[in-house]
């Protein structure tokens, strides 16, 4: 019997474990450092995001906004644009 087109996925994936495996792989391969080196000297694109929240617990709407903002940075990195990669600032003291 031939190999299945898609491999079996668990009904309850262990997302934290998957994240740790991916982060370990990126560290092992110096993925972020290689991206920075690849885009160095390219057109500059800068995005400075404010803090998630200054005086209240984080809500789901904050996570949505952060996700979209992260997506923009990744998109511009794929375009070869050099970035500061400085996301957020401290306004709480």
Share of helical residues: 40-55%
Count of helix runs: 3
Largest sheet: none
* Secondary-structure element series: HHH
Query: What distance lies between the first and last C-alpha atoms, to the nearest angstrom?
Result: 64 Å
Oligomer: single chain
- Write down the overall mean pLDDT: 86
Structural class comes to: mainly alpha
Write down how many β-strands occur, each being a DSSP E stretch of 2 or more residues: 0
Shape: extended
Low-confidence region ranges: none
Strand content: under 5%
**What gyration radius follows from the Cα positions, in whole Å?**
18 Å
Give structural notes.
This protein is mainly alpha-helical and 93 residues long. The protein has a domain of 43 residues. 46% of the residues lie in helices and 0% in strands. The mean pLDDT is 86.
Name some characteristics of this structure.
mainly alpha; 46% helix; 3 helices; single chain; 93 residues; 0% strand
In short:
This protein is mainly alpha-helical. It has three helices and no strands.
Q: Can you lay out the helices and strands and say which pair or pack?
A:
Blueprint: H1 15-29, H2 31-39, H3 60-78
């Amino acid at each position: 019997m031939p190999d299945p087109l898609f491999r079996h996925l668990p009904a309850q994936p262990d997302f934290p474990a998957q994240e740790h495996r991916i982060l370990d792989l990126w560290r092992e391969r110096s993925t972020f450092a290689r991206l920075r080196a690849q885009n160095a000297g390219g057109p500059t694109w800068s995005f400075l995001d404010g803090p998630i929240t200054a005086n209240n617990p984080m809500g789901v709407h904050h996570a949505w906004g952060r996700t979209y903002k992260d997506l923009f940075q990744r998109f511009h990195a794929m375009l070869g644009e050099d970035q500061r990669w400085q996301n957020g600032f401290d306004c709480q003291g």
